[in-house]
Amino acid sequence: MVDLLYGHNETVARWVAAHIPGCEAGFNNPTAIGVLDNGKLIGGTVFHNWHEPCGVIEMSSAGTSPRWLAPKMIRAIFGYVFDQLNCQIVVMRVSERNRRMVRIAERFGFTGYLIPRLRGRDEAEWVFTLTDDTWRSHKLNRR
């Protein structure tokens, strides 16, 4: 059984950044939710670049086990974004090479835009967006 880790923003943010190639600089002023499996951090989501007047936030995630994306973590991620912060859209950037995360984003209802060279001369990046309306009507959000 996995447990959620709250209140350790910097620890989880450093862990997530260490597991995302090209994210060595980390995150400014992050809020994060981690996932523990038997006390070991196996995943997390970092929320950053919040622009409250527009209701926009960015999220970055990483995991070392498929167990990190348990249903309670999914509810925690989108509950924080859409219910606590009242965001109207969340943005997530994903390397074109990270096919697994691309599939997860699509399964969650994100809309993707592939931008050539956004990760450097030889690597494109997906910019995914998910609106509150899309999430609220998505089958994964139904209990």
TrEMBL record:
InterPro entries: Acyl_CoA_acyltransferase (IPR016181), GNAT_dom (IPR000182). Pfam families: Acetyltransf_3. Residues 12-111 form the N-acetyltransferase domain. Signal peptide: none annotated. This is GNAT family protein. It comes from Devosia algicola.
